[in-house]
Amino acid sequence: MEFRIESSSRVPIYRQLMAQVREAVARGRLKADERLPSVRDLSRQLVINPNTVARVYTELEREGILNTRPGLGVFVAQPKSDLTKRARKERLLCLIDELLTETVHLGFTAEELLAMISERLQRFQFPQAVGSES
Amino acid sequence: MEFRIESSSRVPIYRQLMAQVREAVARGRLKADERLPSVRDLSRQLVINPNTVARVYTELEREGILNTRPGLGVFVAQPKSDLTKRARKERLLCLIDELLTETVHLGFTAEELLAMISERLQRFQFPQAVGSES
Amino acid sequence: MEFRIESSSRVPIYRQLMAQVREAVARGRLKADERLPSVRDLSRQLVINPNTVARVYTELEREGILNTRPGLGVFVAQPKSDLTKRARKERLLCLIDELLTETVHLGFTAEELLAMISERLQRFQFPQAVGSES
Amino acid sequence: MEFRIESSSRVPIYRQLMAQVREAVARGRLKADERLPSVRDLSRQLVINPNTVARVYTELEREGILNTRPGLGVFVAQPKSDLTKRARKERLLCLIDELLTETVHLGFTAEELLAMISERLQRFQFPQAVGSES
DNA sequence: GTGGTCTAGACCACC
DNA sequence: GTGGTCTAGACCACG
Asked: For labeling, which of A83, C49, C93, D62 is most exposed (least CB within 10 Å)?
């Protein structure tokens, strides 16, 4: 895995990194139990403060996406969401509304939006259709 | 139009308000040329500082969503985007990827996502399919 | 770079500062990736409120002329415009008409105007003639 | 002469009108000694406050572009500038610098700018080359 | 250290 | 009445 920091972006560095890790996991480019680079290595590689990398790992662990095995390193966690189905659906609908709002303001039609989504869908590793109850 | 501020949220007040106005316009609940509440009225109603409301209106005007007529008030602008098609598409794709990432992490399948989107689509006022050049 | 505020002018302070930064960039006196003084330093130097300086930086960032790296400071952005060619041309023609109007009222001939423009052209850093599409 | 007010513009109405009168005079569409519509007529025609029209006429009279003949109406003044040549040149150079700054930021080359200027030049009525000393 | 957010209150321009 | 500008000062997020 390679990560990139866009220093010209107004998004904080730690947010950029978090988003990239989350996307990599969602696309299957980082698999469960795979080990991530150490804080020191990654901070050297990206030329950013080690504290910043540490913060990324900590927050992703809180989200249940990573977990730390002391002395061994940081690993991708088994997928698992402790939110209720209802809370998860609410959160997703909220994001959908934001996307639709922006789509309208950018002047795209519903058809154009759906076409772009279908195209992007293929890049992601969706869970199997069974047992999405939790 | 009614707006609500969630002061317990970590999202800045002015961002919350901006999002609500943008969504209201995208859904057609605020129509072009419709007048918004005055800075002073809205700030009293929401019990926030007038400067905060003014900032919301100013930024949305810069985005081309509102326009102010000095001495008269703030109005919903006619839809119009001066951004390159390319820049607009890039922005939308980025938002789509974020949505897909979150969808996977929340444990939804592609089908569930598409179903929710179709359901929500109807709430928004999309532009006509013609001349989306520019 | 040195900036000056004319407090006797009717032009708002933040507009004066914005104009000076924009001109400095256009003339190449501020180069891409160069760092500007911090909000606090510049406000002390010009004896104006830090918020006023912050506003200048924020608005120029929105125009794509500066970008801020949180915790590091404010920098000159790489040149880039997401505006439609059409919108950009319209804006320029409008400014040209204003200039020509004023030229006539000041009693200068077209030849005098063109001579002054040629003289001033040399102070500015124009882009290369290639790919001005977008 | 016909004037138009763009209420969606952030430029104050009285500024818009002033600019249009000044441009009309500079382009020769309003000739010296020609009479302008009365304050009441123009305000009805544009559906704006009479005070606003009155202000436009007053300020343009101060600039020496119009003059009022009490009981008869408002007329285009004979061209005449009481500024010194030096002050007038300074003012024009300032406007030229603003134009060049904007040209660079919009991404146009010097050649493109000059082409647009030549094209627009023809619409204006420049004074004869003699005796521009004042 | 950096910039970003929010409040409070003054004063001005516009209509 | 409307919005726009500026100041002062507090508190938070970022690196």
From this structure: D62
> Among B110, B45, B124, B121, which Cα is nearest to B79's?
B124
Residues of A in contact with C68 (CB under 8 A): 10
Between chains, do C83 and B86 touch, taking CB under 8 Å as contact?
Answer: no
Q: What is the pLDDT of residue B7?
A: 86
A106 in contact with B, Cβ within 8 Å: yes
Residue carrying the six token digits 């519509």: D37
**For chain D, what is the mean pLDDT?**
92
A111 chain-B contacts, CB cut-off 8 A: 129
* Residues in A touching B103 (Cβ below 8 Å): 26, 92, 124, 126
> Three-state SS for B69?
strand
Dist CA A26 CA D44 (whole Å): 63
Q: List phi, psi (to 5°) of D27.
A: -90, 0
Q: How far is B59 from chain C (nearest CA, A)?
A: 10
Convert the pLDDT of each residue in C45-75 to its tens digit.
Answer: 999 999 999 999 999 999 999 999 878 899 9
Residues forming a β-bridge with D73: D69
Rounded to 10 deg, the angle between the A110-121 and B85-105 helix axes is 60
CA distance C35 to D88: 36
Assess A96–B contact: CB distance below 8 Å, yes or no: yes
- Cα–Cα distance, B63 to B68 (Å, whole number): 12
Question: Any CB–CB contact under 8 A between C48 and chain D?
Answer: no
pLDDT band per the 50, 70, 90 thresholds, residue B134: very low
Tell me the two tokens of residue C127: 């882009």
Report d(CA D89, CA A120) in Å as an integer.
58
CA–CA separation, A15 vs A7, rounded Å? Answer: 12
Q: What's the rounded Cα separation, in Å, for the pair C57 and C128? A: 27
What Cα–Cα distance (Å) separates residue A33 from each residue in A1, B41, B107?
Answer: 14, 55, 18
Q: Which tokens hold the place of A97? A: 């509304």
Q: Is the dihedral angle over the CA atoms D96, D98, D101, D103 positive or is it negative?
A: negative
Nearest nt to the C72 alpha carbon by C1': E2
